[in-house]
Hints:
The chain is an alpha+beta fold. The chain contains 9 helices and 7 strands, in the order αβαβαααββαβαββαα.
Amino acid sequence: MDTRKVKDSLNRLLRYLPVRMPTTGWSFAHKAPACVVSPENRTWTCMFGYINRIVRGEPVCFSSENTGCSGASCYLGFKTPSKDAGSFLAQKEKFKKDAALGNAFYEHIGAHASETKFIIWGTIDNSDEDAEIEVVNLWVDAVNLAGLVTLSNYDRPNNDNVSVPFASGCQSIWTIPYKEKHAEESKGIVGCMDPAMRKYLPSDVVSFSVPTKRFVEMTENISGSFLEQSGWKNLMDEKVHSSGRARRNPT
């Protein structure tokens, strides 16, 4: 979706629902943009190791040769998992009870093949005006997550329009929400529940990711919703006051 429309939608949301870190987004690119960071070839790096540079305005460029780790290569759609990938999940990370369950996890990833040679992850504010943003990542605490979950269900009759899947960090902010783009009714994805990458984020921050079309729809529903009501405003004011008290009285 057009970057300018995504930026306008984000500015609309931020008037009611502040985020903990700058909002990021994903886009495809046929060539690597200038002034981007890229994982070193054949060097292991978790993509979340770049998060501080990203939120400072330095986008990261991924390709089939430079993803940082083999898992990310699969989650970004540059290759398919190896047949014994489940062993790593079960025996090394201990996130699945046995290798068979680990293999089943990888069999169900279903990542879409990358549409271009490069995939760019950076802040929405610093996205190129010509970029087509595919997925938006909001970085929030529990209170603002409550607001996003409520807004996700505001315009639909069913009440399960947000999912919290077991997934790697990169899978939860790109693979799954990008798959949701192709669903009849896209869901929001609460992510960064992967213990292996939690050290890269503040302890009270999680991601809320959604395809851009759904993101714009959600912001267009703000008018007349609970976000304009005094109850939500009071909650936001209390958050500000509580944060100030915490800074003045550190434990």
